[in-house]
Predict the structure of NAD(+) diphosphatase.
Amino acid sequence: MRVKPTDLDIAFAGSPVDRADRLRTDASALEALKGPQARLLLLDGLAPRLDGQGALAWGSLADAEPGAEIVFLGLMDGAACFAQVAPALWQGGAKGPRNMFPLLSALSPGDMATFGGAKALVDWHARHRFCARCGSPTELAKGGWQRNCTSPACKAEHFPRVDPVTIMLVELAGAPEPTVLLGRQPMFPPLNYSALAGFVEPGETIEEAVAREIEEEAGVRARDVSYVVSQPWPFVSSLMIGCHAWADSPEITIDRNELDDARWFTRTEVARAMDGDADAALKLPPRFAIAHQLLRWWLARG
Amino acid sequence: MRVKPTDLDIAFAGSPVDRADRLRTDASALEALKGPQARLLLLDGLAPRLDGQGALAWGSLADAEPGAEIVFLGLMDGAACFAQVAPALWQGGAKGPRNMFPLLSALSPGDMATFGGAKALVDWHARHRFCARCGSPTELAKGGWQRNCTSPACKAEHFPRVDPVTIMLVELAGAPEPTVLLGRQPMFPPLNYSALAGFVEPGETIEEAVAREIEEEAGVRARDVSYVVSQPWPFVSSLMIGCHAWADSPEITIDRNELDDARWFTRTEVARAMDGDADAALKLPPRFAIAHQLLRWWLARG
C-alpha cells in the first residue's frame, strides 16, 4: 500500500495557531490584543513547559519576565497568543532541560507545531540582538516578525531566519531488492543510521544541493532527484526538504569529516528496523524526524 | 506536449564551478590555490563585468582591491575561482549599474549561475560585518563559507543565509478552461502580472507556506499543493520553491498592502502573453524569473 506524502506524520507541522499576519503591522490592533485574555506560552529556557494534562502550558502576559520582549504568535480559539524573549535567553543565564525531546514526545501534534514555531522565533530574537551590518543594537518590530537596527545611519531591517536543508533517500537502481543509502554521524548512538542531509547553499537549486551532498558525503552520483515532503525543524530553525534520488553505482567513498559510516540497506533490513526488531541491522531516527517519515514513505512505495 | 520541470530553463542554476567543499576547511590547500593561475571574478559593485565576448570577466588575484576579503567559489577548468568582497561594498561606496538585468540577459546560462552564486555570497559578507549575537566584528573563515565572531567571549559562527520563498500557480478547479491566479505588485510595470510568492516562516512546511500566502494575499483557499521546480535567486539570496495548488472558489479578496491587483487568467490569455502578443491581457515576468518557467510548465500541462 502506498503512503502519500500527505499521509505522513510530519512533526512540527499543522499548528492550530492562525498567524494573522495582517495584525503584525497594525500596532494599535496588536496593543489591543494584549489584554487580560491574551495567552503567553510558558517556556523553560527554550523548552516547552507542560500543564497537568501534558499539553503546552499557557499563562497571561502578567507572567512575562521584566525586560522580556513579547512576540505575537497569532490567534487561537479567539485568543491572541504570545511568547516572550526573556532577558536570560540573550544574557546566557537561561535554564532548561538539556534534552527536550522526551518532553516533545509527550505533546500532541498541534502543540508540537505551536511550540516549534514559537521556539524558532524566540531563539532567533535571542541570537540577533545586534545588527549584522553595523553592529548597533536592534529592536523588535512588527510583533516580533522583524528586528530593526537602532542606528539612524543604518536602519537595516532583519527578518527571522529559516535555513533550507535538503535531506534525501538515495535508492540504488537495478538492485535485486529496493536498497537505500543511509549514513551515521559520529555523534549518533550505536547502529543508528539516517538519511544524508545538508544545507542548501547560495546559488543552488534543491536538486543541485541534493546531488552535491550525496557526492560530498558518500561519493555517490545521484540523478532524477524528486521532492517528497517538507518539515519545519526548530533546532535551530530549518526547513527540511525531503527528497528521493537514484544512484546507478553502489560504490561509496565516505567523507570521514562528516560521517562515521554510510551503507546501503535493503528494504527488508529497513522494514525490520521500522518494526522495532531488536536484531535489526540498524536503528532508525525517531518518528518526529523527517528521515523516519521518508523511510515510511519509501517502505510503502511498492 | 508536456514540459517536465527538468526541461525548464531555470536561470541562475547549473554553474560549471565545482564548489569543492572539502577544500574550504583545508587552509593550506586553499592558500596553495591562490597562485598566479587563480581567477578572480570581476564585479562592478555587485553587478557582473563582461569581457569582449559578453562572458563574465575574470582577472587574477592581483586585481583584488586593497583590504578586500577573498572568497573561494570553487574549481573550474582546473583553475581555482575566487571573488572579492571589496571594502566599498560594506563602506557604502560601491558603484555599479542601477539595473543589472540587461547585463544578465547577455550572459550564458552557466555564467549567469556562476555570477548568481558569487553575488549572493559576496553580498552576504558585505552585510554581515558584525556578530548578530554580541555586536563584535566578524571575520571571514573557511574560504568565505563562514564568518566567525572575533570576541573571545562569544565566538559565534555565522553561515551564508539562504531564504526559502514559495512561489505558486493557483489553478481554479472546475473552470471551463484552465485558469490561473496571478497578481501584480504596485511596483510592477503596467499590465505585468506574476505568480504570488512569499517567504517561508519559522514553523511552516512548504505546503503550509503556500496556502498561507494565497490566503493572505488573495483571500483564496488552496488545496493539494505540489512542488514543481526550484531556483536560486540572488536578489538578495533566496531559494525560490515553485509550486502548484488548486482552489475551489474563484472569489478573491486582495490584500492592498501587498498587491495592486490579483486576477484569474485563462490559458488562452496566458498563452497570448507568452507568445509576446502586443494585445495580450497581461505581460509576463521575464524568462529568467521562475514565475515565467512555472507558466511555461503550466501551459504545456495539457
Q: What stands out?
A: Chain A touches chain B through 62 residues (CB under 8 Å). Residues 286 and 292 of chain A are 6 Å apart (CA to CA). The radius of gyration of chain A is 22 Å.
